[in-house]
Amino acid sequence: MEDVKPQLLKVTIDGIEVEVEPGTTILQAARKIGPEVAPPAMCYYQPLKGSGGKCRACLVRVAAGSAKDPRPMPKLVASCLTAVQDGMIVENTTSPQVIDARNGVVEFLLLNHPLDCPVCDQAGECDLQNFSFDHGKATTRYEEDRRTFEKNDLGPYIQLHMTRCILCYRCVYTADQITNKRVHGVLGRGDAAEIGTYIEKAIDNDFSGNVIDVCPVGALTDKTYRFKNRVWFTKPVDAHRDCPTCSGNVTLWYRGDEVIRVTARKNEWNEVTEFICNTCRFEKKKTSDWTIEGPTKISRSSVISANKYRADTIKPSFGQRLAAAEYKEIHEERDTSQLKIQQLPPERFAKLPSAMEPEP
Amino acid sequence: MATKILTEHINVPGIETFDVYRKQGGYTAVEKALKTMTPDEIVEEVKKAGVRGRGGAGFPMGMKWSFLAKPEGVPRYLVCNADESEPGTFKDHYLMKNLPHLLIEGMIVSSFALGANKSFIYVRGELMYVIRILEKAIAEAEAKGFLGKNILGTGYDLELVVQPGGGAYICGEETALLESLEGKRGNPRNKPPFPAVKGLYQCPTVVNNVESIATTSWIVNNGGDAYAAIGIGRSTGTKLISASGHINKPGVYEIELGVPVEDFIYADEWCGGIRTGHKFKALVAGGSSVPILPANLALTLANGEKRLMSYESLSDGGFATGTMLGSGGFIVFDETSCIVRNTWNFSRFYHHESCGQCSPCREGTGWMEKVLHRIEYGHGHQQDIDLLVDVAKKIEGNTICPLGDAAAWPVASAIRHFRDEFQWHIDNPSEATQPGAVYRGEMALV
After folding, report:
1. ipTM entry
2. pLDDT at A345
3. Could you tell me where the DSSP H helices lie in B99-127?
4. What pTM value is reported for the model?
5. Of the candidates A57, A186, A190, which has its C-beta nearest B351's C-beta?
């Protein structure tokens, strides 16, 4: 049989053209270009079938449907579910309409999500934290009571903080797809909906710990790691072991010489591709249990790399560019595209002292 | 007397039984369709009739049918959406209760046209007695050979299943209905794929409203052209309107599309006018999810012509000066109604019924409800009105299913047309919270 190459489709996202295979979604195409234009995703999780479309964080504007039919789509579309067409033009961070919608989504998500980052174990690794930094506002217009929940005991390994849940359904899909004993799901409706086990039952199976990894916020956390450390003080190291139930490829999180947490390996989009078993995650916490591969590669813009700067640091993320663009009003000369600090022209210096003079 | 297609024989005693219905000319469409017509011919007649979906969206029914994928060896399904539950809409309930055989006849004809051998009627769980009526009627039809194996000796088989829903408004959305029918949580699916390609059990499915399906037997008997001759423009045929509120004669009326709104409200044949001694203040023309209109815009178009009961005329002027025909839930308000309280009430419903799957709807509907509650109870702030407009704008169009839009439109339109009244609540909290207090400022009352 002849090896026929599928015809590649050309998509333009934020003015950058990329060629992708048919069947690719806008989000995947954008991720191919890089984090600069990749829409945020709170509920979409590539390894989980059926995920996506719920959080509405990845909404984009399709300015031209395809080369054949260049009409714009009437509504914003969820980029994680919309397949690309040849000649499609997508506006992500370049469309004010999209920025406005994302602003709304952040505000909605934060209505009932407490900003308890200082005590939350997910701080520093939280998708919602990043998303609100990029697209949110410093204040809220919400004055009403926030929802609270009775504590729900899920067993010895997993802590459920329902107040922090943003109902992304990722853990439900995980339980559905990688374990054979699904015991939890979504109960209730609307903003009274909650993740629960119906009648307080422990989530109990070999792979249950993976719901911790897929949770984008701090709703599901590791009971064996709680309050042990802040993630930016730890040192992640790739390691593996010969495990009979899972691949055994993990990340060990060190504090000094001690392994304080074991997680599955995440890719640059914070997604686990190889799920690990509970034995690896909760029980093997000695260095001698593992074959060490070397330090985990951490994105230079991640808070985990804080205090560990190198010369080739941070690429400007969207949030910084947005902040820079707003800052431009005060500082016209600032070149936001390169993010280089320019020397102020001398005449600007001349103005400064007079403004700082005490009033007579 | 206006033409009646659906409710012609509704007052005949015993019409809910097979024999009486048959005597009134019932089930002739089944005989005609199965014995003399091909499925494609029926679809063609429905297309010619130009009948638009009566569940609210108004999508041409024949076109929906023609979108149905027909892969080899895969069953196709027809699902009747009888999960009617929007505030102000009660026509399907009325139709099923009084004329169960009309729906069953329509189901047989439509299923034959679509090539479905198993069809479902998804009825709202609260209507248990209607479910019993339908089941009894199905048993009668089956006993007479109009349902089951080899109908009337034509070799066509059809099994009709009545499925009670759990009583969630969201299950009236077609994809949530299919999820619910499959035994799952009633969350809407992301589209595409549309049900016509992958619907019930991943098979091609058509979901139609009760009223839409009930019209098919008349279309088969009398032809699509005869149906298209009734009505006005692209709004063909008749429509059941469930009229409620401050009118003298609330009830379900079958009208030819194109009747002026003014006639519908004031004629004795229909609503019989506004409650005696009161004035017409506002109108919700198509169920609680459509934008509310003040009296003057409800009766006339922006250019001064009379507004008609049709899809086009009601939506004339877009959302600035128009509304939608929707499902035909016609709610009339006189000057004693408080628009803020009413908006809060609608909002309370959508907050309660949001499925909670996507974030703008889950969080936004609750937020709007709480702000409206605050305004109604005299704790509103000046910025709350703009806040509501902004929240509604951020929900609208950004959700998976139209429930987000349905929750946002009533709030946005109430503020658009009755901003003064909201302002009055904020400025005069002590007066506005008095029992029965209503804004009596400058307003176009008719």
Report:
1. 0.91
2. 56
3. 100-114
4. 0.89
5. A190
